[in-house]
Write a structure and sequence with these properties.
about 325 residues, alpha+beta, 11-stranded mixed sheet, globular, binds 2,5-dioxopentanoic acid, binds magnesium ion
Length: about 325
């Protein structure tokens, strides 16, 4: 074998070994995680493909200083249940929230800034979005109290007084009372683009109404902070026809997650912690608006998938 060939075959082997290594490492990444499911029957902890029932109170459980380590020391005290029982428990899935407030960050991705500038271009509000994108202080807004939050396989509403409605798929953080990120979940920041586009001061009406926030399916508690390479995916179906599909990664966010948390906790206390949606990067085309019976599917690597069905308050 010529020297050239030897080098080539060594490189090929090297590439092969590197690929195996990467596959193993990405698999291991998801092995060292805990997932907490809140259900009507109680709390389920998933660890290494097994499920344990934890007899605890949700708010007290998640508001720990080191939730991952606590769960690691505690899971064997839980009762292990069978796959059949898990299916029964999962049928009663609730959003992974107790008494916490839900806040949201806006214009954290370039795509979101451009979308807001587009929707407000005729009404003169566009400038505030480009300024907040560049500013040191992020945009943070109050999104929801727990009773307006829905979970996986549950219905979100669109407003009847809005002509342009979209879901916003977002990585959501759970931050404990001490201001430290302890877990992650999938967020759906349902929004009226026509109301916000008319005047930025209408933001609370565009964002806060019954069933306007989705969180689920679980609280994902990894040993290490979530990777910037984490993917976020969304599809929207209407009568089984795919109307929209898009994906992005957390790395495209302009701000750092602890930076958002530090602004939120500057002058606010959260006795049982808080959820923070971190902004959207996936924006359906301008001519798209949600309709009742649409199905929104949001997935985030490691965390899982949340499906929301769309309706209006009082039915249509
Ligand atoms: O600026 C208004 C809200 C933006 C938002 O919700 C987002 O960027 O996700
Ligand atoms: Mg949003």
């Amino acid at each position: 074998m010529s020297r050239y060939c030897r080098i080539r075959s060594t490189n090929k082997k090297g590439v092969f070994h590197r690929s195996i290594f990467i596959i193993l490492v990405s698999g291991l990444k998801y092995l060292h995680v805990m997932k907490l499911y809140k259900t009507g029957k109680g709390i389920l902890l998933q660890f290494k493909e097994e499920y344990y029932v934890l007899q605890q109170e949700w708010d007290k459980l998640i508001n720990r200083d080191n939730l991952y380590t606590y769960l690691l020391s505690e899971y064997l005290n839980g009762k292990k249940i069978t796959k059949e029982e898990v299916a029964e428990w999962q049928r009663e899935l609730l959003p992974p929230i107790g008494t916490q407030e839900v806040w949201a960050a806006g214009v954290t991705y370039l795509r979101s800034r451009d979308a807001r500038m587009e929707e407000s271009k005729d009404t003169g509000g566009a400038d505030c979005y480009s300024r907040v994108y560049e500013a040191e202080r992020p945009e943070l807004f109050f999104k929801s109290l727990p009773h307006r939050v829905v979970g996986h396989q549950q219905t979100v509403y669109i407003r009847k007084d809005s002509t342009w409605n979209v879901p916003e798929p977002e990585l959501a953080l759970y931050i404990n009372a001490a201001g430290v990120i302890q877990g992650y979940t999938i967020g759906n920041d349902m929004s009226s683009r026509s109301i916000e586009g008319e005047n930025p001061l209408y933001l609370p009406q565009a964002k806060v109404y019954e069933k306007s926030a989705g969180l689920g399916p679980c609280l994902y508690v990894p040993e290490q902070p979530i990777s910037p390479e984490t993917g976020i995916y969304m599809t929207i179906h209407r009568n089984e026809v795919k109307m929209y599909e898009g994906n992005t990664t957390v790395s495209r966010m302009k701000r750092m997650l602890p930076e958002l948390v530090s602004y939120l906790y500057k002058e606010c206390d959260f006795a049982t912690g808080c959820f923070l949606m971190t902004g959207t990067c996936l924006v359906p085309p301008t001519d798209f608006t949600l309709q009742p019976n649409d199905r929104v599917t949001i997935s985030i690597d490691g965390i899982g998938t949340m499906v929301n069905f769309v309706d209006v308050k009082g039915g249509n």
